[in-house]
Amino acid sequence: MSRAMFEYTKTVLKKVSFNADLFYKELEKAIKRLLPYEIDELRIWLNEFTLKKPELNRCLLLIK
Predict the structure, then answer these.
(1) Rounded CA gap, 1 and 17, in Å?
(2) Cβ(45)–Cβ(9) under 8 Å?
(3) Distance from C-alpha of 64 to C-alpha of 62, rounded to nearest angstrom
(4) What is the three-class DSSP state of 39?
(5) How many domains does the chain have?
(6) Structure confidence by residue, pLDDT tens digits, 10-40
(7) What is the C-alpha end-to-end distance of the chain, expressed in Å?
(8) 2, 34, 36, 46: which has the fewest C-beta neighbours closer than 10 Å?
(9) What is the rounded distance in angstroms from the CA atom of residue 43 to the CA atom of residue 64?
(10) CA distance 40 to 18
(11) Domain range spanning residue 52?
């Protein structure tokens, strides 16, 4: 079940990545929902994902 939540979170973040404010809000929700090891995986995924979208870099402060 939790793996499905992690995949769902990535899908949602991809869909809202056009707007940094929405991305930030969804990332906040994800941090509350995910397990600690999933947050670590999400951090790795976000570092790669935001390389292509520098406008989202400020959102990374939330997860560090």
Answers:
(1) 24
(2) no
(3) 6
(4) helix
(5) 1
(6) 999 999 999 999 999 999 999 999 999 999 9
(7) 25
(8) 36
(9) 8
(10) 23
(11) 2-63
